[in-house]
Amino acid sequence: MELGTSSRARPFEWQTIALLCACYAVWLISTYLFGSTWAALPFAVISVTFHSSLQHEALHGHPTRKAWINEAMVWLPVGIFVPYRRFKTLHIKHHNNELLTDPYDDPESFYRDWRDWERLPWVLRRLLEINNTLVGRLVIGPAISVVGFIGSDLRLMLGGDRKVLIAWAHHAAGLLLVAIWVWGVCGINPVVYVLAVAYPGMSLLMIRTFAEHQAQERVGSRSVIVEDRGFFALLFLNNNLHLVHHDQPGTPWYHLPAIYRARKAHWHAENGGYVFRGYGELFRRYAFRSKEPVPHPFLRRG
Questions:
Q1: CA dihedral defined by 269, 274, 279, 284, rounded to 10 degrees?
Q2: Kind plus residue range of the DSSP H or E element containing 255
Q3: How many CB atoms lie within 10 A of CB 229?
């Protein structure tokens, strides 16, 4: 059984299929109209972010029990930057709850090892500190993440890692199809698409990832709950209830709210009150203020 999927044999999940169809329809229509009206731009950006949320569902075993079918449904890299297979490999590794936030063993950690932190030039330290504010994360966060991710994967490929190389080859084939549509059919300059659609799409996603985890000795206290029920809850497919997702990673997105509501006091106690009423509260608290220090407060200090 694939890691991250439920052991119960699930039926075909029409809810997720319907959202996939809607996502691709919005992306196709908005990019087609983008050449004639900038009003289509927000819809293109939102569809890119939403596609990433659907990729997250797919790597956890949805909407079918066949991993190759799920991959085929979300493989097209409309978000440009991250190959689906690399996202899947790194995210499944991230789901080792005992290692959450570890600067080395958690591939989605924004913390740095103290020794690495002390070796960084002042300019890079300052950029990483700005990146730990919510506005900073939205503006420079995608660039920092993409540069670090691609640099790491290049080192792996140069070191002979065939799995990473194959993942990027699959991604390149998908990028060709995206380029044919975006440039050849819609007449959008690829650079414009990257800067005006893909980059903001990744930036919008970082509203979710900004506070997903915090450094805490107690494992349960490391994952957030954001009690949003509106636009962002749908955009992130209820992954704002992040503690519930980490506790039950094989549960489909549409079951998470009911599971949370049924044991709300339990989840609040489990994560030590690391709870926000909504993303507006996150903006009010951390728009221009660091949520936490960049160097990890207790791991990798020796």
A1: 130
A2: none
A3: 11
DSSP state letters, 161-172:
-HHHHHHHHHHH
**In terms of pTM, does the model score above 0.90?**
yes
- Do 103 and 300 form a contact (C-beta atoms < 8 A)? yes
| Cα separation, 45 vs 193, whole angstroms | 10
Rounded-to-integer distance, Cα 26 and Cα 110, Å: 32
Tell me the C-alpha distance between 53 and 256, whole Å: 14
Query: Where along the chain do its domains lie?
Result: 14-214
Q: Which two tokens stand for residue 159?
A: 């070191």
How far is it, in rounded angstroms, from Cα 132 to Cα 136?
7
Which of 39, 155, 99 lies closest to 296, judged by CA?
99
Burial letters for 27-59: b for 16+ Cβ neighbours within 10 Å, e otherwise? bbebbbbbeeeeebbebbbbbbbbbbbbbbbbb
137-167, pLDDT tens digit by residue?
A: 999 999 999 999 999 999 999 999 999 999 9
Amino acid symbol at 217 = E
Residue 9: count of CB within 10 angstroms of its CB: 6
What tens digit of pLDDT does each residue of 66-106 get? 999 999 999 999 999 999 999 999 999 999 999 999 999 99
Tokens 């792996």 locate to 156
Q: Which two tokens stand for residue 170?
A: 């699959």
